[in-house]
Model the fold of this input.
Amino acid sequence: MISGKRLIVNADDFGFTPDVNRGIVAGHREGILTATTLMANGDAFEDAVKLAREAPSLDVGCHLVLISGRSLLPPYVPLPESVPELLWALATRRIRVYDELVAQVRKILSAGLRPTHLDTHKHTHLAPPVLDAVARLAEDFEIRWVRRPLPFGVPHGALARHGCRMTDHFAGFRLTGRFHTPELVQLIRELPEGLTEFMCHPGYCGGDLRQAHTRLKESRERELEALQAQETRAALVQSGVELATYRDLPP
Done:
């Protein structure tokens, strides 16, 4: 366990829509957001790459997608639309999980970005076949940091076998879509010793996002406001919490 209290504030869904992209960068430049994960099959992928180049201090990883959007493999068919559909596709071997995820990482690398960490859209690496693929991917591409799976009895053995590293703690799952500044301040004040990743979903709720297939719309602006709030920064100082990125950490 890392000594002291260190916090990585990581935004999912970079590349989803332009207004989400702008919100993530604003959360980094004007708030406490330190990292994000990029959707290689996102509609606003190129826009996200451009913004990442303009914000080199933003730590970028891969948001691996097996639900929603299109596959990056020929014949470029739609991916499953829900967790039950994905589980059925896994059970019937209708999806080439490892190959799909490799294509996504390679697209990000081809854009000139060097991802430092991996996580999955909708936490699909809770499913053992996906966890195995992510662990192999992490080793093959030497991207050692992988989001800690939620503690619902999922074995982490695959991650250990492939030399993956995880933060000591993971936070934000229960707050997704429903936190304001007071909830974020409370989380910071109650942060345990060690390294914590806090997952968030900031953004601006513009026209692109309103038309997108997601339940997280107006809530993204509330999350962005919380990340930028003076009370949030004050809580970090008062609680002795140091912000961090995966880039700062040993591989």
The chain is about 40% helix and 15% strand. The mean pLDDT is 92.
